# Entry
Amino acid sequence: MDDDLSALEARVAAVEERLRIVEKRTGIGVASEAQSGGVALNEGMASSVSSHLGRVLLIFGGAYFLRAMTDFQFVATGLGIAMGASYALLWLFMAYRAAGKEGRKAGALFFAVASTLLTLPLLTEAVTKFDLLSGTQGAIALTVFCALALLVSVIRDMRLLAWLISGGGVGTALYLIGASHTAQAFVAFLLLLAIGSLWAVYRGSWKGPQWVAALGVNAGVVALVLLSSNEGWDVGHLEAFGFAVALLLAYLVSFAVQTHIRGEDVGAFEVIQAIVSVGLLVYVAGEVSRGGHINLAVVGFLALVLGAAVYGLGFTPRTLASRGPNFFFYSTLGLMLVAAGSAIVLTPGVAAAGWAVLALLLAWFSGRQVMVTLSLQCSLLLIAAGFGSGVLSTGFFALAGNATESWPPLISWQVVVALATVGSLFIPVAQSSNRWGKLAHLPQVMVLVLAVWEVGGLVVLLLAPLLAGVPGAEANLAVLAALRTSVLAAAVVSLAISSRHKRWPEARWLVYPMLILVGAKLIIEDFPHGKPATLFVSLAVVGSAMIFVSWWMSGKDEPRAGR
# Structure
């Protein structure tokens, strides 16, 4: 009998085990348990939130009790403010303790929020209403509290507290700048808050708070520049410039540590804030130099030195080996600073020639190192050189400008830039990359467009006075239109021929758009201004170019005459 009972129990246990396996795989039973426990779960959550809110209300009640004691002069105002500050810091400490205990993270967050909402208004009143703290002292107190709160947020992984401190600190500081009539101290606080928030984000692998703090310090620097021109504020122009430099340096050093020591890649924030910081520095330098408060040459040399250092960060062994976003970020940003610095220090023509020579050097390195980024930087420098020397504006007027108006004069630096642009096409550059894909051809396309624009414009500029007598009121518009059409048609043929060469396959992408452009030009300029003789030339040139392109691009050995 006992053996039969044992066997029956074993079978029942086996059936139960099978049922548990089936329920686990199918979810049957689990859902019912969740449904049956849903009411209890919701009730528990509501009870927890109610408990936390109740504690927060008691905390604020205590704060108002201290405030009432101060208002009724049971304690001196200074002592009351000190008691209130100690009370607020106590709850920050309680948040730190609670967050270290399992299951009490939500309660710790409520304590931290309460501490922040108590401290920031208290500091504001201490500066504005009670005059217990000067503006500088208020900025120091605000710095201490925000530093402690950010430290707690990092140690206890409380991202919401970092958000609150970043936003609350920025709002409080911007308000106190106007209320206390003290700018420098609070902008210094905003700079420290921005870097502190950035490193809190780096440490906690968060996203978000650094944007708020960066927005605050950027606004603070702009405010300093505007206030430096206001006689009612004791803000020096050089102080505004110093803060702009400190802002850029602080962020660049932080980015360098994050990428080169911690081995992380730059993200959207680093790229955008670096561009904004450089733009702010340029803006501040321009405003300060306008009043003669600083020599722009000093700013230019500073930009050159800083640009060389930043560019060098892109060529460290690890960054160069990975060829990832860090290399693109540092090399491009460094090149921007070098270009800006040289534009300030040198005359426009000399700077443009220097950029063109540097572009040739980058093209050569691009081919040697097989790096598309360097090819792109070569193209960007050539564009800057074209604008700086004026050859792009000269080419535009020559190819499409009004012939009855004066054109820009031709200067030697424009010829140098145009020759450098054409010369870069004969230097082998990187034209393929798994990372860039089809975009790897974009730099060469840009250089081809520049070459057509600049060389075509210079040819028209040299020949137009001889053939059409332009510019001026006596200009022969019909001859000028035919000349322009002939130059553009020759450019189309040159692109078509170049497209069959292994070094310029990208020229194929420009052939047919150029043909469409020439056809539109016939309608817009040649027919309205042309005469029979000049129209014959224009139509013959364009027609011949179209036939040649059709034959050449099809890859046939020789054209076939129609029957």
User: Anything to note?
Assistant: The mean pLDDT is 82. Residues 236-345 form one domain. The two ends are 112 Å apart (CA to CA).
